From TrEMBL, chain A:
Residues 102-311 form the ABC transmembrane type-1 domain. The keyword Plastid does not apply. It comes from Phytohabitans aurantiacus. Gene3D superfamilies: MetI-like. This is Peptide ABC transporter permease. It is a multi-pass membrane protein.
TrEMBL record, chain B:
InterPro entries: BP-dependent_transpt_permease, MetI-like, MetI-like_sf. Keywords: Cell membrane, Membrane, Transmembrane, Transmembrane helix, Transport. It comes from Phytohabitans aurantiacus. Belongs to the binding-protein-dependent transport system permease family. It is found in: Cell membrane. CDD domains: TM_PBP2. This is Peptide ABC transporter permease. SUPFAM superfamilies: MetI-like.
UniProtKB/TrEMBL annotation, chain C:
SUPFAM superfamilies: P-loop containing nucleoside triphosphate hydrolases. Keywords: ATP-binding, Nucleotide-binding, Transport. Residues 3-250 form the ABC transporter domain. One of its GO terms (molecular function) is ATP binding. The keyword Transferase does not apply. This is Dipeptide/oligopeptide/nickel ABC transporter ATP-binding protein. The keyword ATP-binding applies. SMART domains: AAA. InterPro entries: AAA+_ATPase, ABC_transporter-like_ATP-bd, ABC_transporter-like_CS, Oligopep_ABC_C, P-loop_NTPase. It holds the Pfam family oligo_HPY.
Length: 331, 321, 316
């Protein structure tokens, strides 16, 4: 088990290292130095306050220090939590801007991931048992999982918010409210949260339902299922085993899907103007705010790596094979 | 062998999640049987079942219909997809089938051009990802040892790296000008689960009798992979490509929607971007934003359904279900 | 008479028609008898052994019947058959290595299985532990996951579990093929011991390995291309076989202890006929050195000597 975790952590650290390096490398070696261009433009509109930005730039991308020095400086700044200063929200530091947005993204992602995984697995397992349910769940599941996240968001926003008027169309909370610990504000938060959550939930749900349905069918063909059948075990018992065993690959699937789910959250936020990382990224792109964009990238990578690690821990808890140290589980 | 077989399936299965849809688990036991059967008959059998499988035929018809639409329809227009040709914001009519945008652009023409881009990016992106994934998987699984360790590490890193985030950074800095270059980047970041599944399969195939025989007869590694191992996984590889195709299409739509798509090329994602940007939702111009998403869902969904059908065709155990 | 099989025909449904994998088998297995069942791949021996406990979805019972201890065995009816499985007919599968649910502790799995069959785990546990002792497994294995057991241990575990309810008939399907030679010996001896202690009344041991089954079996039945070829006491089959196929089979064994090849008999040229549309008459005649005109008629499976049945015109 220790080996299993050591291996996982090594991969995650290495991935983080690769991500940071890419993040430094790409702007550094782009023709025309787009970051410098961005700074020049900003210094025209904001000549006095540009000094700290210039300093950061010179430190990690500038030409007056050797390359290796720039790279090390980049790491040094990063480890101190300094990712530069946002151009779009000048003079707010990138880290601060991102930390303000992260709770909104997490509030969308965590419930939609957990609930869709849970519900999808339940429904998928039921579908594998009943023909009529299979005939409805299967096409519906495939349709949902083939739907682009932003389109389902668009359809929900248009139908339920604009036409039916049941939910607000855009924002994280009502424009006439200030963030506070009041019931009114909380209520507004929930109302604005529901549609983006629902769009994420629906698409992911389809994928899990199909995945579980297909996995169970394979599990029911497994040797242990055949043996139990030969010993006259009732279908109920065999299905229970199959469900539990099928959950393991579904858990691995969850880890693999994280990137796609995050991507889904980003575009969903854009459709609903939800103040999370997705909208931040859109704004960063539109305002050519490269520091902000790169900061958001690193935050996403860190988030995905942490989530992967959490899933690894859960995996060890549910799969005795990793616990006994006999095999590596889901590599 | 008996220890490897379940491991192989287990590795293949999580690949499932990779594209939100279960990648088919390869029936490992089918290996020797399949090998013993003459290839021609196997192909004939598969074709026979495929043409009788409702899912394969239905999915195939939808995909081909869209492909034909994308290829042929633009030929009938003498104006471009971004030209202001009609009345502004008018609903579907005999002249403009899907209505017009707030600028008077023909939505149907944009739609069919978008279908073209969709197929192109799916074909190229999915194809490239399949090529990289299979090459790495075959080499890692067949050669083993240190090469395997290194490739496995690489695979795992790319696997946990959130691909879209990397693509956003790349696209922002580099700027994409054509669908093929978009497909190139998508392909480079969506192969890892394929490599993993193919590696596991190759691992279990490489110790089979017929591979040993080929090795003894002096066949080179490349030839063994091409002529002995790959054909035994051909059905699996084909289904993998379909999943990658769908994945690329969805990826491209996401990038196009954020506004990082190729410049000057119409795509379904860009249509949705424009619609949202110019308040089509608030203005109620449903004909502008419904078709592009519906088109993607129909194409990708049909591909997935086709895949389920193919799984039943190649995997006789499932035919009874 | 423990088991009586009467003109049993079980076909596989395929695209090109029915594969006549088991085409009319009539034989008996006596109380206390261990019968070895031998034949090449595709001889019908797996089809026969499977149909006695569970037909898979592609198999179809065409004709014939099976009686166990004088009662008809409803092999064509999955649900009715369930009452007999485990309690009357049981199986040690070929895939014993992967027969146990990998994510359940063995003891828990057994208790859940027994509970589902209406047997109290607590009541049977002392007997279970005695039998574990008997096969040399520590009682702690019940608290282990299957992956913590070696191949041989899993094999013994399955052996104990399959016979726990003292079935009348046990089908052991290629039980030794995945094991090394010394473990094979031990497993084979345990089978005999279980019979001697009357944990099971009679046994069918399906095998590729005549030399191994010869050491434990009372009788051996040889199948060829979906038909019975010969059934006789083990030493008669090995020392004085009457069917030309059995003769070739035995003579192609270089010596006791060496297995013959899985797919093809080195010593017998040609290959068995396809079973989609098998030729009329004796199915071995194309490869048979003794074939003559009459072989176009199908030879009946008749008793030529006491307890010695052969399907060959030359043997009568």
């Amino acid at each position: 088990m220790r080996r299993y975790f050591a291996r996982k952590v090594a991969i995650y650290l290495l991935t983080f290292f690769v991500a940071v390096t890419l993040n430094w490398l790409i702007p550094r070696f782009m023709p025309g130095d787009p970051v410098l261009r961005m700074l020049t433009r900003t210094s025209v509109s904001n000549p006095d306050a540009i000094a700290p930005m210039r300093e950061y730039y010179n430190n990690v991308f500038g030409l007056d220090v050797p390359l290796w020095r720039q790279y090390l400086n980049y790491w040094a700044e990063l480890l101190q939590g300094n990712m530069g200063i946002s151009v779009w929200l000048f003079p707010a530091p990138v880290t601060e801007v991102i930390l303000d947005a992260v709770p909104y993204t997490l509030a969308l992602l965590i419930p939609s991931i957990l609930l869709s995984w849970y519900a999808g697995n339940k429904v998928g397992a039921l579908a594998a048992r009943r023909k009529w349910l299979d005939n409805t769940v299967l096409p519906l599941g495939y349709a949902l999982t083939a739907t682009p996240y932003m389109w389902i968001a668009i359809v929900l926003a248009w139908s339920l918010a604009i036409i039916a008027g049941v939910f607000p169309v855009a924002g994280g909370y009502s424009f006439d409210l200030q963030p506070s610990w009041s019931l009114v504000f909380f209520n507004s938060l929930i109302q604005h949260w529901f549609l983006p959550f629902l769009s994420l939930f629906l698409v992911a749900f389809g994928g899990w339902a199909i995945g579980m349905r297909n996995m169970i069918i394979y599990e029911l063909e497994a040797d242990y299922a055949n043996y139990l059948e030969a010993l006259g075990a009732p279908r109920r018992l065999i299905r229970r085993y199959a469900f539990r065993n099928a959950l393991l690959p579904q858990l691995t699937g969850l880890a693999l899907q994280l990137g796609v789910l995050v991507a889904g959250a980003l575009v969903t936020e854009i459709v609903f103007g939800y103040p999370g990382l997705g909208r931040l990224i859109l704004m960063a792109i539109q305002n050519q705010d490269f520091f902000l964009l790169q900061g958001a990238f690193l935050f996403i990578v860190i988030g995905v790596l942490i989530a992967n690690f959490v899933i690894d821990i859960v995996y060890v808890l549910v799969d005795p094979r990793t616990r006994t140290g006999m095999t590596g589980g889901a590599a | 062998m008996s220890d490897l077989a379940p491991a192989a399936r287990e590795e293949a299965a999580p690949a499932a999640g990779g594209e939100a849809v279960s990648a088919p688990a390869v029936p490992v036991a089918a290996g020797p049987v399949a090998a013993a059967q003459p290839g021609a008959r196997r192909t004939r059998d598969a074709l026979h079942f495929a043409l009788r499988n409702k899912k394969v035929v239905g999915g195939g018809i939808v995909v081909l219909a869209f492909l034909a639409l994308g290829l042929i329809a633009p030929l009938f227009y003498d104006y471009g997809h971004s030209e202001y040709v009609g009345p502004q914001s008018s609903g579907p009519s005999g002249e403009y089938w899907f209505g017009t945008t707030t600028f008077g652009q023909d939505v149907f023409l944009q739609f069919v051009h978008g279908i073209r881009s969709t197929f192109l990016v799916g074909l190229l992106g999915g194809g490239l990802a399949a090529l990289i994934g299979m090459t790495i998987g075959f080499v890692a699984g067949y050669v083993g040892g240190l090469v395997d360790e290194a490739l496995n590490m690489l695979t795992n890193i790319v696997l946990v790296l959130p691909a879209l985030a990397v693509l956003i950074i790349l696209h922002t800095y580099i700027g994409i000008t054509s669908v093929p270059s978009q497909a190139l980047f998508i392909g480079i970041f969506s192969w890892p689960w394929v490599a993993r599944a193919v590696r596991a399969q190759t691992f279990s195939l490489r110790t089979r009798d017929f591979v040993d025989l080929a090795r003894l007869s002096g066949m080179g590694s490349g030839a063994i992979i091409r002529r002995e191992i790959a054909p035994n996984m051909s059905s699996y590889l084909f289904m993998t490509f379909i999943l990658l195709f769908g994945g690329s299409v969805l990826f491209a739509a996401t990038l196009d929607f954020i506004g990082l798509g190729p410049t000057g090329v119409m795509s379904l994602g860009l249509m949705m971007n424009n619609a949202v940007h110019w308040s089509a939702l608030q203005l109620g111009l449903w004909w502008w934003f419904l078709p592009p998403g519906l088109g993607i869902t129909a194409i990708v969904g049909a591909l997935y359904i086709m895949n389920v059908g193919l799984d039943e065709v190649f995997n006789p155990k499932l035919r009874e279900m | 008479m423990s088991l009586r099989v009467d003109n049993l025909k079980v076909y596989y449904r395929t695209l090109r028609g029915d594969v006549k994998a088991l085409d009319g088998a009539t034989f008996t297995v006596a109380d206390g008898e261990i019968m070895g069942l031998a034949g090449e791949s595709g001889s019908g021996k797996s089809t026969l052994s499977k149909s006695l406990i569970r037909l898979d979805t592609r198999m179809r019972l065409v004709e014939g019947g099976v009686e166990l201890d004088g009662k008809p065995l409803p092999i064509g009816d999955q649900d009715a058959m369930n009452a007999f499985r485990f309690k009357e007919v049981s199986l040690i599968p070929q895939y014993a290595m992967s027969a146990l649910n990998p994510t359940r502790k063995i003891g828990k799995m057994i208790s859940e299985l027994l509970g589902a069959r209406g047997v109290k785990y607590s009541e049977i546990k002392p007997e279970l532990e005695r039998r574990l002792d008997l096969v040399g497994l520590k009682r702690e294995v019940l608290n282990n996951y299957p992956i913590e057991l070696s191949g041989g241990m899993k094999q013994r575990m399955v052996l104990v579990l399959s016979t726990l309810l003292n079935p009348s008939l046990l089908i052991a399907d290629e039980v030794t093929s995945a094991l090394d030679v010394s473990t094979q010996r031990a497993v084979a001896e345990t089978l005999v011991e279980f019979r001697d202690r009357e944990f099971v009344k009679s046994m069918i041991v399906v095998t590729h390995d005549i030399s191994l089954v010869y050491q434990i079996a009372d009788t051996i039945m040889v199948m060829y291309a979906g038909k019975l070829a010969e059934k006789a006491p083990a030493d008669v089959v090995v020392n004085a076989p009457r069917h030309p196929y059995t003769q070739l089979l035995i003579s192609s064994l270089p010596e006791v202890g060496v297995r013959y090849a899985d797919r093809k008999l080195a010593g017998i040229p040609g290959s068995p006929p396809g079973l989609l549309n098998p030729p009329a008459g004796c199915r071995f005649r194309d490869r048979c050195p003794l074939a003559f005109a009459r072989c176009v008629e199908e030879p009946p499976f008749v008793e030529v000597d006491k307890n010695h049945h052969v399907a060959c015109w030359k043997a009568q």
